[in-house]
Design goal:
Blueprint: H1 2-11, H2 21-28, H3 32-44, E1 48-52, E2 55-58, H4 60-72, H5 74-86, E3 94-102, E4 105-114, E5 127-128, H6 134-140, H7 145-161, H8 168-181, E6 184-187, E7 194-202, E8 208-217, H9 223-249, H10 270-278
Antiparallel strand pairs: 1-2, 3-4, 3-8, 4-5, 6-7, 7-8
Helix pairs in contact: 1-3, 2-3, 5-9, 9-10
């Protein structure tokens, strides 16, 4: 029953936002009566709703859960205030992204936009490819070995097509190179004309729980700018990790998004301060 409830919830998409009980029954290969029971369970929780009789869409409970995530998620609590400051260190027309792995994709959970610019395709809540783009590769490089082995077994062709290695050992060598330097660069791999500089956000086991990345105009990605942003994004990721650890050790109240006073501790990390003293903004 529980598994089918999750499968039903997963049917709703941008491409197909509305379902009937009969369509659910056909898709899940269950009786119509069973489909109505599943729909009833999700409706009771507010996760789906009948927008018109017999036509079901995602419900207001999803909105409530979304707000709860924005106010209480440990990664967001630690990252958002730092991102609001770090965007000022990027060239005008840049974006800073916070992303997480989601199934076999990468999902943007927050972005800060620094001035007018074309939109990046890493929109909040939109799954993006795992094997292309600095934002995604920074997460990929720090995945556990078992997860990497599973991904290679399923997506070997896509991995080769993305230039990450012709076989398993080459793939691992590519990832080791990124792990060694601590950041990933990519030019126009996801959005044409945009250049990414990304670093992983790691947990206590040194596995990626997400990534932070600068996305800048490729025309502004000269060697001096990239050499300035790479250590800055790595220092920012380490600060987010420390913020998560501090928040986990303390009882904190839900934060307002974007308020730097809500992160654990008001002082910026020594690493970020040091980078900022050595380098001036590229605005």
């Amino acid at each position: 029953m529980t598994d089918r409830v999750f499968k039903l919830l997963g049917l709703f998409s941008i491409e197909r936002p509305t379902w009937t009980a009969e369509q659910v029954a056909s898709k899940l290969d269950v009786a119509v009566s069973s489909a109505y029971r599943l729909i009833g369970s999700l409706s009771k929780a507010g996760l789906i709703d009948a927008i018109t009789p017999g036509q079901y869409v995602l419900g207001p409970g999803i909105i409530q859960l979304n707000r709860q995530i924005q106010l209480t998620d440990p990664l967001l609590r630690a990252a958002v205030p730092v991102m609001n400051e770090m965007i000022t260190m990027a060239p005008a027309g840049s974006t800073i992204l916070l992303c997480r792995a989601f199934r076999d994709h990468v999902l943007c959970v927050h972005q800060v936009i620094g001035g007018p610019q074309p939109p990046v395709s890493y929109e909040r809540g939109r799954p993006r490819p795992l094997f292309r783009g600095a934002t995604s590769k920074a997460i990929l490089a720090f995945m556990p070995p078992r997860a990497l082995k599973r991904l290679y077994g399923i997506y070997a062709e896509e991995i080769t097509s993305a230039g990450l290695g012709q076989h398993w050992s080459e793939f691992l060598a590519t990832l080791r190179g990124w792990r060694k330097v601590g950041y990933v660069l990519a030019n126009s791999e996801v959005d044409r004309g945009r250049f990414g500089v990304a670093a992983p956000v790691l947990n206590g086991d040194r596995n990626a729980i997400g990534s932070l990345s600068y996305v800048i105009d490729a025309d502004k990605a000269d060697e001096r700018t990239v050499n300035r942003l790479a250590p800055l994004i790595m220092a920012t990721a380490r600060e987010v990790e420390r913020g998560m650890s501090a928040n986990a050790a303390a009882k904190v109240q839900p934060a307002k998004m974007g308020s730097s006073k809500n992160r654990s501790g008001s002082k910026r990390s020594k690493a970020v301060k040091a980078v900022r003293r050595r380098r001036t903004p590229a605005r």
